[in-house]
Amino acid sequence: MKVAPKLIFVFKDSDGLASSISDALLPSPNSSLRRLEEPFELPLERYGIGDCSARGNLAHFIDGNGVYKVSVLIMQTHTPPTLACALNEVLAQVISDEAETVPTLLVPFVASPSEIKCETRTPGKSSKTSIYCMPVGPETSVPGAIFAKTEKTPSPLQIQHEPLACLLHFARVLKLPAIFLFGRKGVSSERGSGDELEVLVEIGELLANTTGLFFSKDKISWNPGKTIRDVEEPWRALYG
Fold it and tell me: Which residues form the DUF7894 domain (predicted)?
């Protein structure tokens, strides 16, 4: 699986985060980059899973010399334990021996307070939203500006979103260079208000500035659902 040195990794969702990120990231005006889209499907038979596969879509931004500059990977989600098998297979392809370099993963996510639990350091802050940045693994080549425009993820941090928790676990185990961007709306606001859209735009523009692309608000297809009830499941202990 060929990807660019900068790989934006998102999970397919019903709210439209993945499609909004993928569709709204475009080549900058007057840029020579072109966009190439392709699906992928990887069998999971070696894990004893024959009735489903790891699948998704890739969008590449390629320059005039055919060099891959940025890739966006949208992965279909699964429930555990299939989720871990599918994610392991996708990451194995991304960092295979055939890859020229190990890409830096940029993982955006817009969370409700029930999906990412952490202490709010500035409860009196006028802004209703916060963008947290959590680097994982070796140092990355991503510009330092991304850290200047985000807050450091407070500790302790509890992730109650299965795909995100699983990806974070693999990034740590495989020592992948990765930056997780958590957009967290204010705990006092109602899900579905304008706060999550504001967070999505902020994250999209941050990704665009980091990758040299353009983020078009007109391409956003955001339809947040209801708040997911907290469910404490034993498998979460595996991800820390």
Answer: 1-240
In angstroms and rounded to an integer, the radius of gyration of the C-alpha atoms of the chain is 17
Boundaries of domain holding 189? 6-229
Residue 235: both structure tokens together: 């498998």
pLDDT tens for the chain, 240 residues long, are 999 999 999 999 888 889 999 999 999 988 999 999 999 999 999 999 999 999 999 999 999 999 999 999 999 999 999 999 999 999 999 998 676 788 999 999 987 777 777 665 554 444 556 788 888 988 766 666 787 888 888 777 788 889 999 999 999 999 999 999 988 665 444 444 567 788 899 999 999 999 999 999 999 987 766 444 444 455 555 554
- Check: pTM over 0.90? Answer yes or no: no
Q: Is residue 234 part of a domain?
A: no
**The domain spanning residue 175 has which CATH number?**
3.40.50
- In whole angstroms, what is the distance from residue 149 CA to residue 159 CA? 22
- Residues 6+ positions from 5 with CB-CB distance below 8 Å: 68, 69, 101, 103, 104, 141
**Cβ-contact 137, 178 below 8 angstroms:** yes
Q: Is residue 237 in a domain?
A: no
User: How many folded domains does the chain comprise?
Assistant: 1
CA distances to 121, 128, 133 from 179, in Å: 21, 23, 7
